[in-house]
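Bit of a strange request maybe. I'm writing a small parser for structure token strings and I need a real example to test against, not something I typed by hand. Could someone generate the tokens for this chain?
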Amino acid sequence: MASNNILIGSLTDSPAYTFHFIFYGVLLVSIVFLLVMSQTRTLVKTRRLLREKEQALKLIELQKFELELKDKNITDSLIYAQRIQEALLPSETYFRKHFEDSFILFKPKDIVSGDFYWIGEKGEKVFVVAADCTGHGVPGALMSMIGLEIVEKTINEDNIEIPSKILAVMNKGLEKTFSREKNIGTIIRDGMDIGLCVIDRKRKKVEYAGAFFPLYLIRDGSLLEITADKIIIGMNPEELAYTDHEIDILDDDIFYIFSDGYVDQFGGSENKKFMYRRFRYLLMTIHNFPVNDQKTILEENMKTWMGGNEQVDDMMVIGFRPLIAETK
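Reply from user aminoacidic:
Good idea to test on real output. This should exercise your parser:
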């Protein structure tokens, strides 16, 4: 046992042992130091990344707030513009002063609408106009205001009463307004589809002219379509003539005039357009119902048809019986 202790003691006291002890000690300390330094650098980098992320999040929050504020300002402006547009369009109550048995379904896609309608009376005649301007939203709404002004001036100031002539004047007015070369070197070309009825109560007749707007008449369980010319208003530089149609009115006749927003809406189980065929069938099904019920059915039917789809265009459907006694 003594010899073994002497051997161990001599080994631990040897220079080689001391060298190895110091070497591995230094190596161990170096490894620990490197690990600590690595973790420190990682920690510093992590903290820097966290600070950068926090700054990025603050910037995103600021940008989000600014966008929400801008969006609110734009929406508020559009809502105010909607009030102006609604003030310029005849109300359903005013419409019923001329045609007691009538309804107006009017659903803009983007708060303000490129669709518009107008009604006016001169002597024994009542003028009903429905139009669909190029586009929707703000551009369409601006177009609709110009269209309203031209219609009123043509009928009330220029005293033009023939539907085709009114459309010709509107075509010239829009051509003059929108086909001018601007400073930027471009040409603005916009137009509108339109349908115009002139109802002569005394003669019990309706005169109609349209540009891409058909007029539907339901009589004795049958639907008659009064076709329109395929010549857009405002894009007829050759000044092709529009066609007048004259129809005798019977007591139970009901007319429908509408934009293409309803029939072009996507929906249903196959996500297709509603189409004119379905629309005609729906009108045939409901035309004998009270007008308020007709409007409700059209609204609910479209809501069901759309499902989760967005509205693709402005919608307008006007129905009226010309010979129902008006409310004065």
